[in-house]
Amino acid sequence: MKNGVKESIATVVFQKLEDFAAYGFNKSHAACYAMIAYRTAYLKAHYPAEFMAALMNSDSGIIDRITIEVEECQRMGLTVMAPDINESFAGFAVVKDTSNVRWGLSAIKNVGAEIAEEIVRERKRNGPYVDLADFLGRIKSHAFNKKTVEALVKAGALDRFEDRSKLVGNLDVLVMYNKHVQHELARNQTSLFDVGPSIVTQKVELRMVEEVPVSLLMSWEKELLGLYVSSHPAKLFYDHFAPYVTKVSTIPTFEDGAMVKIAGVISVVKQIFTKKKNEPMAFVRVEDPSSSLECVVFPKMFTQVRLKLNPDAMVLIMGKVSQRKREESENVEYSVLVDGVISFVEDDIPGLTAMLARGGWEEGGGEREGKGQGAEVVLEKTGSSTVHRAATDGVSIVVPQSPTHDMIAKLRDIFRAHPGRAPVFLLVESGGAIRKVSTEYAVDLSREVIGSIGEVVGVENVKV
């Protein structure tokens, strides 16, 4: 108090010191902490990849910790790579002659320590696995079953041998091949090479299967590893949307209340009920390739968009930046208060890109779902051609998959300069069909207007 500190503050501070003194000021305890802190700091500074691999091994199975440590690796410039049958060990390890950390085989859900160690032991004993048949023929373990093979495939451990989609569609073939080789070995009581060269040299005959969407491949990976490692589903669309949305990592540079659009993948949805009226609302964490951010969906908005808020869903979100200081701290937490949500799949990306490019989905009159704005209509397909059912309901413009900013700006100027009663639609190719995307514009259907639009996109791309 003589130093000018208020009595109430001094009392609180002293109480904290008194509680902490119960263990914090023990000299032997403090000495051990200091020693461990020094050693770990030294290792992290001079052997960063090895240190982080060891740290992840100590936290293996605790996905929240692993997620933090993977993010720390990225901050340090280290690459954490998906599991690989020829480079992964049972636990996390550094790839030889690199600073890359490989995901451990036993850290894959449904791959036990026994089979992980057998795979590594066989590889050390007889060299890397040459191909798919070689790998399947050399693993001798009762733990090598369909569940294990499926986990290895979906986590990406066999990507070096074959496309992941094809392997998933042939899981039964992989397991049967392994059992066949082991049966022949047991029957002949001899080495695999004495049984007959055809067993080890023949290829595994895989059926042709339908290609799995990249977003589904990524969701499998996240299910088995706990997070996205080899890629991120947001990369499917982020390059398309990047000029029109805000990077999540840059949200802290915006002022409180600023309007932003973000695009990403939902990782967590936490629904709660308000204290006053017991209404449902949600906290939604959204990830893009740069970072993740919490989005707050208040009750009124939640009732409109709740069906779109699912883990692994790809979403466009519009809202206001919110800054909040933590109690007893100068740290500021940032979030987005949600005003609108569009969920989509891969086939919708071109149409949404066109919508964003022309400035749609703006606050106060822009395109919004459920209001007839931004709605998409798949047109009829007849054989290899598409029937444009737009001739009687306005003007439809065939937009290239990658419209330039100049093209969009010129079209917008034409629409604004010639308002009328004919609605304007964009026709965007997506998934082998044509999607009809409405806009907020309506124009006068004069020859002058049609001619001006034709000069920008080509006369053949204007449907009246």
Question: Could you characterize what this model shows?
Answer:
With 464 residues, the chain is of the alpha+beta class. It has four domains: 7-39, no CATH class; 47-225, no CATH class; 235-344, OB fold (Dihydrolipoamide Acetyltransferase, E2P), CATH 2.40.50; 370-463, no CATH class. Helix content is 39%, strand content 21%. The strands form four sheets. It has a five-stranded mixed β-barrel with strand order 4-5-6-8-7. It has a five-stranded mixed β-sheet with strand order 9-14-13-12-15. A three-stranded mixed β-sheet has the order 1-3-2. The termini are far apart.
Number of helices: 17
Let me know the largest β-sheet: 5 strands, mixed, barrel
- Report low-confidence residues grouped into runs of 5 or more: 192-201, 363-392
- Rg value: 29 Å
Spatial order of the strands in the main sheet?
4-5-6-8-7
Global structural class: alpha+beta
End-to-end Cα distance: 83 Å
What is the tally of beta strands? 15
Inertia-based shape:
flat
Mean pLDDT: 83
* Helix proportion: 25-40%
